[in-house]
Amino acid sequence: MSRIVAGAAGGLPLKSVPGDSTRPTTDRVKEALFSRLESYDVLGSARVLDLYAGAGSLGLEAASRGARSVLLVELAPKAVAVCQANAGIVNKALRNDVVSVRRGSVDSVLDSFAPVPGANGGKTWDVVFMDPPYPLTEEELAKTLEKVALVLEDGATIVVERSSRSAEPTWPVGLERFAEKKYGETRLWFAEPVKVGAE
């Protein structure tokens, strides 16, 4: 059973998506990931986007550790239902509606946040988690990362979780890897926005 590792809702059990359609992040990897993010001081009051959320464990952990708002994005109906149940559990524990859920494809949701020419920009995020299904091709992931690059706040942190056997993601213009770490069969890639043409 998955659980919240630490923070205001630490120890709270979470529901899991039935079957094997999702690949939950292990508590060991989650604890290491969040220890690193806390060392970067990026979680407090962050706006967090959890893409390919599954049961929502990464976004929910961020909420427990002080994120200002968390959006879980998932397409599969069973996973959406679990995200909604887990969001309700965590929001009740935090006594605040920090976590919300949106059903849809990752690319369509990102498109809805992108800035519109002539308007005052789109919705931006401070922390983005991406734990795409392994069958997602590197080309598909690269295209999605291009969309992510358009909706980031300055100083944002992106975390991509992949199989340790997968190649490094292809980072688009405007994103740059600054760290990576392997945990058994899992590898985490950390990236941040950079100004195009910056020295």
TrEMBL record:
<dbReference type="InterPro" id="IPR029063">
    <property type="entry name" value="SAM-dependent_MTases_sf"/>
</dbReference>
<dbReference type="InterPro" id="IPR004398">
    <property type="entry name" value="RNA_MeTrfase_RsmD"/>
</dbReference>
<dbReference type="Pfam" id="PF03602">
    <property type="entry name" value="Cons_hypoth95"/>
</dbReference>
<dbReference type="InterPro" id="IPR002052">
    <property type="entry name" value="DNA_methylase_N6_adenine_CS"/>
</dbReference>
<keyword id="KW-0808">Transferase</keyword>
<keyword id="KW-0489">Methyltransferase</keyword>
<protein>
    <submittedName>
        <fullName>16S rRNA (Guanine966-N2)-methyltransferase</fullName>
        <ecNumber>2.1.1.171</ecNumber>
    </submittedName>
</protein>
<dbReference type="GO" id="GO:0052913">
    <property type="term" value="F:16S rRNA (guanine(966)-N(2))-methyltransferase activity"/>
</dbReference>
